[in-house]
Queue: 2 jobs
Job 1
Amino acid sequence: GQQLNQSPQSMFIQEGEDVSMNCTSSSIFNTWLWYKQDPGEGPVLLIALYKAGELTSNGRLTAQFGITRKDSFLNISASIPSDVGIYFCAGLGIQGAQKLVFGQGTRLTINP
Amino acid sequence: ETGVTQTPRHLVMGMTNKKSLKCEQHLGHNAMYWYKQSAKKPLELMFVYNFKEQTENNSVPSRFSPECPNSSHLFLHLHTLQPEDSALYLCASSQETAQETQYFGPGTRLLVL
């Protein structure tokens, strides 16, 4: 079945640093989504990407839909303490019942 | 604010208990989902409902029984669970199952003793 490989699994950075994480797959996806999950809460949608090559920003967050449709990355600039959490990528494929496939998550920890 | 609420937020139950999880969405969506999130595992899709009809059951054990009385409400009835069923159970909704953007509730943290 379709799988997403998300990396890194965890990151430990200093406040103010930029962050980059990515998801790759051997399958083609029509849509890429990036979610953030705070402890004890459900995932919250950050950015949605619908077209290969698309680059979209949401404040300090920037995400891109890879041109091959098999990857996506998320960048966070000038990290702040509230960026702490788990970031998930998710892809919507081109076959079946449009099932959303999730990556394993990237746990971000920020040292003040 | 996602417009998807879940109750209870936390639940502790014994293996012989029967309990139910409730999800309500205020977004006017037609599709609702149950996911299971265990530590160090990707989100696992359990059930999908579209216009109150179950369209997907991802080989979930029968001790989990979903119910969707209308497009705004989704229940997960729990019966004779096992300790390995302890997890965060997340509800989500989207406009239609073919619609890509799913909005999640805050989840119910379940502990089975």
Job 2
Amino acid sequence: DQQVKQNSPSLSVQEGRISILNCDYTNSMFDYFLWYKKYPAEGPTFLISISSIKDKNEDGRFTVFLNKSAKHLSLHIVPSQPGDSAVYFCAASAAGNTPLVFGKGTRLSVIA
Amino acid sequence: DSGVTQTPKHLITATGQRVTLRCSPRSGDLSVYWYQQSLDQGLQFLIQYYNGEERAKGNILERFSAQQFPDLHSELNLSSLELGDSALYFCASSGYTHPSGNTIYFGEGSWLTVV
């Protein structure tokens, strides 16, 4: 049973446009959400996070939106750049020092 | 550079063998996590240690075991290896715990190929 789902395995976006990556979760105990970015042959790199007390968190070109009622979060990248091409993982955890549960990832390709 | 160090980076071994993967967490981090990434799969949580004690267990096979030593480095032992154990094994560590959750930092992974 997948508690964190990324239903789009891949996404292609033109350089300069907005990339929107989506993630759904089923566990209502989750209250901390993160996005990681992974390049081939490297470990996942932390990108941005949001706690359940917020509905938006912004860091430069990256914004994460959280809709708790829909159990849905999204990552917006604007403007998209070729260097953003990578696999993006959504992750979630419950309160405390609990392990993160990851989605299967979405491969983003930003085309110049 | 996340500060998490994993060795070896690549390993090829035969079925039935045993291997040990090593991880040094970021300086000061007390928690170590092991994740497995197989082809077309996401990151599957295996096990977590906190300051030497097992904290949480995920989808870890009985053939696999781990430990965290007093200097906080951790080892993941994989035995009686099967072809299906071929995967990327990531170690991650975390320190400060956000009140709602924690951010973990990954090493570059150990790529295990079982032939």
